[in-house]
Design brief:
EC number: 1.-.-.-
Largest sheet: 4 strands, parallel
Distance between the termini: 48 Å
Family: Belongs to the FMO family.
Membrane topology: Single-pass membrane protein
Strand content: 5-15%
Order of helices and strands: EHEHEEHEEEEHEEHEEHHHHHHH
Structural class: alpha/beta
Number of strands: 12
InterPro entries: FAD/NAD-bd_sf (IPR036188), Flavin_mOase (IPR000960), Flavin_mOase-like (IPR020946), FMO-like (IPR050346)
Strand order of the largest sheet: 3-2-1-7
GO molecular function: flavin adenine dinucleotide binding; N,N-dimethylaniline monooxygenase activity; NADP binding; trimethylamine monooxygenase activity
């Protein structure tokens, strides 16, 4: 009998989860609270429409490093895509692999719990509402994947004296367009991805804008529109903006665009591939004691590797993580074999960027075009004209 899986959320992680379930012959249903796919990347207009990017947001990782492992973005797309192009890429992916029929739009999952026969079957009960109605329905599944991301609930700190401030106080999640802040004096708290992104946007309309770093209590300074990292006057030391690249990713604010080194779509896909293999018994979990031991080891490693911050709870080193998880289902590149049989591809994988396509060279559901896609990487990078305006209206 076929396994059944519920996928909660139709963002980048959710649609890749649907796809890998189909590959493994698993019956899959995806519950999406809104009426569209894309999740965080689906900006649809409005100032406070929830957990989406801003109107002007450009993806903070290179399109080739952020691609799904068997579906590269169109060559003519900018190397750093505007959010509307990311959304278009998701739709192309979903249509190409016929994922859309598996999505139930306007379905709000209320709770997931163990079924009454869980001890015998290991199945789960998913309770959901079909919006806008409040009536609840339920369905039983063999497993579920929670793909609603970690950006839905904003973290809003409280500062002494904040209640005395009479102006508006908002979280960056609510900032979609800067229009409401025209000719105002604005303070942005934080210099992470969202803080710098917001500061760049607001600096175009605000009367005066200051950027405040919580971790360095005295560092309050007028925001500079061009990247401080590009300066030759040692502003990093002057403004005490020192950081270790090994502990946190640098944020670059460059002429209205914000780019941060990293990628996430391939990691989400790799996790889903592992889960699908698990559901079909092709990957076996260790015993509970061993799993707790491994979780503890990884947490300690993260404590050493990353800054003690809530935003680093989901950080991983891309290559190490991908090799680790794909090794469990046989999709890690066999570098020794490549050295002996395909030196050209070997050196492309060894010294080139960590392209996700290398995880489709072998293993379950390998991709015949993986090799040529890796070798043709330079031509796809050179094709788009990144000097043109990236924002699509």
């Amino acid at each position: 009998m076929k396994k059944t899986v519920a996928v909660i959320g139709a963002g980048s992680s959710g649609i890749s989860a649907i796809k890998v379930c189909k590959e493994e012959g698993i019956d899959v249903v995806c519950y999406e609270k809104t009426n569209r796919i894309g999740g965080l990347w689906n900006y649809a207009g409005g100032q406070n429409e929830g957990a989406t990017v801003m109107k002007s947001t450009v993806i903070n990782s290179h399109k080739e490093m952020s691609a799904f492992s068997d579906f590269p973005p169109p060559s003519h797309f900018p190397n750093y895509m505007h959010n509307s192009q990311v959304q278009q890429y998701f739709l192309m992916y979903a249509e190409n692999f016929e994922l859309l029929p598996h999505i139930r739009y306007n379905h709000d999952v209320v709770r997931v719990s163990k079924s009454s026969d869980y001890e015998e079957t290991g199945r789960w009960k998913v309770v959901f509402k079909i919006l806008p109605d409040e009536k609840e329905f339920e369905q039983i599944f063999d497993g579920f994947m929670l793909c609603n991301g970690h950006h839905a609930c904003p973290r809003m700190p409280q500062f002494p004296g904040q209640s005395d401030f009479l102006g508006p106080v908002i979280h960056s999640q609510s900032l979609k367009v800067p229009d409401d802040f025209k000719d105002l004096n604005v303070l942005v708290v934080g210099i992470g991805n969202s803080g710098v992104d917001a500061a760049v946007e607001l600096s175009n309309v605000a009367k005066q804008l200051r950027l405040y770093l919580q971790r360095i209590q005295t560092a309050v300074f007028p925001f500079m529109k061009e990247s401080i990292l590009n300066s030759t006057n040692n502003e990093l030391e002057l403004y005490k903006l020192t950081f270790s690249p090994d502990l946190q990713h640098p944020t670059l604010a460059v002429i209205g665009l914000v780019q941060v080194f990293g990628s996430h779509f391939p990691i989400e896909e790799a996790q889903s591939r592992w889960f699908a293999q698990l559901m079909n018994g092709k990957v076996v979990l260790p015993d509970r004691k061993e799993m707790k031991k491994e979780i503890s080891r990884r947490r300690k490693a993260m404590d050493v590797r990353f800054v003690d911050s809530a935003r680093h709870t989901v950080e991983v080193d891309f290559i190490h993580f991908m090799d680790d998880i794909t090794r469990e289902y046989g999709a890690t590149p066999n570098m020794r074999k490549l050295l002996l049989t395909d030196p050209k591809l070997f050196f492309a994988c060894l010294v080139g960027p960590g392209l996700p396509y290398q995880y489709r060279l072998n293993g379950p559901h390998s991709w015949p075009k993986a090799r040529e896609t890796i070798l043709n990487f330079p031509s796809r990078v050179e094709m788009p004209d990144d000097n043109c305006c990236c924002q699509m209206e």
